[in-house]
Design brief:
By secondary structure, this protein is α+β, with helices and mostly antiparallel strands. It has one domain (8-116, 130-147): START domain (Alpha-D-Glucose-1,6-Bisphosphate, Chain A, domain 4), CATH 3.30.530.20. The chain has helices spanning 28-35, 41-44, 120-123, 131-146, 151-154; strands spanning 8-12, 15-24, 48-52, 60-65, 73-81, 85-89, 93-103, 106-116. A hairpin with a 2-residue loop joins strand 7 and strand 8 (106-116).
Length: 155
């Protein structure tokens, strides 16, 4: 089991799965509010260049990551179960955010992304590691959620 905030990646021939988890000193509703406010992502998340569109059931969003600033990911929100589970993705992969209450005012955050498919081996070597980006995403989310109440809304 990795330590809190440390990403792990499992590689298979036809897929790759990266996961990070951390404890956040904030209730799930607070973390959920941050995760589903798409227009504010670049304000708290240093791994996201831009995110356009509304994060709500069945919606489509466009995301640009620091991992590849030249590419815009066009994603669909596939699962939206407040305040516990959010999934978005495209034909090649999906990312799932899971929020689990640990105790009063504390949340276990987990983010998992699986990419792959029949043609995955043809381009797998060109996809950068997600580990450090996932670790930074989790750290940024933790900082935003644990900040004084209105700090993420003031920027």
């Amino acid at each position: 089991m990795p330590k809190d905030g440390q990403a792990i990646t499992e590689k298979k021939t036809f897929s790759r799965t990266t996961t990070v988890a951390t404890s956040i000193q904030a209730p799930p509703a607070t973390v959920w509010g941050i995760l589903t406010d798409g227009r504010r992502y670049p304000l708290w998340n240093s791994t996201i260049v831009s995110l356009t569109g509304s994060i709500c059931p069945g919606s489509r969003i466009e995301l640009v990551s620091t991992l590849d600033r030249s590419r815009t990911f066009k994603l669909k929100v596939k699962e939206f179960d407040p305040p516990g589970r959010l999934t978005w993705g495209d034909a090649l992969g999906q990312r799932t955010y899971t929020l689990t209450p640990i105790s009063a005012g504390q949340t276990r955050f987990e983010m998992t992304e699986r990419i792959g498919g029949p043609v995955f081996p043809l381009f797998a070597a060109r996809i950068p590691s997600f580990d450090s980006s996932f670790e930074q995403f989790a750290a940024d989310l933790k900082s935003a959620a644990e900040a004084p109440h209105d700090s993420q809304r003031e920027a």
